Amino acid sequence: MSAMGIETDAMFGARGRGTAEEAAARPFTPRAIHRAAVESGGLPYSIAPVLFVVIPIVYGWIEAPGPAAVVVTLLLLVYGAAFVYCCGIGMYPLRVRLAWFALCTLILLSLIPLIGPNVLFMVMFQAMTHVLLLPWRWAVPSMMVMSFAVIVTAVATEVYLAAGIAVMGMMMAWGIGYGIRQQILQEQLEAAHERNAVLAVAAERERIGRDLHDLLGHSLTSLTISAQLARRLLDSDPDAAREQLAHIETTVRQALADVRATASGMQKVRAATEIASARSVLGTVGIQAEVPTALPPLPDDRAELFGFVIREGVTNIVRHSHATRAAITVDERSVSIADDGVGIPEGSSRTGLRGLEARVTVAGGAFEVTTGEAGTRLTATMEEPR
């Protein structure tokens, strides 16, 4: 079903809903709604299925031709237009989405006295409005309750085709909603990574500035004094002047090496920075994070390795786990990332984890993955130095 969600999210405009600020700033006008539907990418794919509203319209004219059929036709055309633009309304704030959902629901309820059980044929459309307009935690239970109610009613009234459509609609709506949710989570993850990258760059600049000041401040002062002394001694004591010049050369070489070492540290992954990033990323997607407030002293190579383990573990949690809690623990010899999610499905690709295991093994450690219904735990353990 996850594959179905990934395939159908593009069909119904799951390009994310943008930020809350963007949604609130969007004007609620016909032109703006149409523009939002186009931006979502779902407008072309919403038009084709809505043509099936012809079925209840035909039944309405067959069973009660005349003014009632005209009313049914108008209501269903309005409902069809509302459904087509659900993909655009999905990019508006929650209050607008709820109002649009209520409009669609009221139109269907008003059709019951006019076409009776034939309104059940609209269940697939209404199931999709749940996942397109409602928050995921509301959409799934409400959509399932509605679908089961339609199935029971369809069986009781012997409209068996509607029962089959309800089952199919429930499955399609779940797939579409799951794809939309995954896309939104991915966008939130990318936004959090971008914010963390900006903060990390700023913090790194400050650190490098402090390091350069500490490294070069003393060296440049020493060079200035030695150069002044060498200039004074050049005529009176050439040997002493040469000693000062040799000291200047040594100091410059050491300062250059220190600057290169400081600059090379800009691109290194560190456990401490990855933990700070993890706290922000997990919080962004609504996962409660338990992370260490302080780390034990770690050698540079181990701090870098643990940073890669934490980064990969957090990425997997956000993308695949459906977890509500995650915990990171670090000591001198090991790092562990655990969640309370659904575990790693059998047969799923583990490319990232295999690469991480190879990295840990090359560093002389052991990498273990335990997964099940209670969640997943990644653990990297390093051997004690001999």
Write out key terms for the chains shown:
386 residues, alpha+beta, Heat Shock Protein 90, 2 domains, five-stranded mixed β-sheet, 15 helices, 5 strands, disordered N terminus, Histidine kinase, Sig_transdc_His_kin_sub3_dim/P, membrane, protein dimerization activity
Mean pLDDT reading:
78
Percent of residues in beta strands?
5-15%
Cα shape:
elongated
The main sheet comes to: 5 strands, mixed
Instruction: Report the C-alpha radius of gyration, rounded.
Output: 32 Å
Secondary-structure element pattern, one letter each: HHHHHHHHHHHHHEHEEHEE
Total of helices: 15
Order of adjacent strands in the largest pleated sheet? 1-2-3-5-4
Low-confidence stretches: 1-16
Number of domains: 2
- What is the strand tally? 5
Q: State the helical fraction.
A: over 70%
Head-to-tail CA distance between termini: 50 Å
Secondary-structure-derived class: alpha+beta
GO molecular function: phosphorelay sensor kinase activity; protein dimerization activity
Protein name: Histidine kinase
Keywords: Kinase, Membrane, Transferase, Transmembrane, Transmembrane helix, Two-component regulatory system
Pfam family, one: HisKA_3
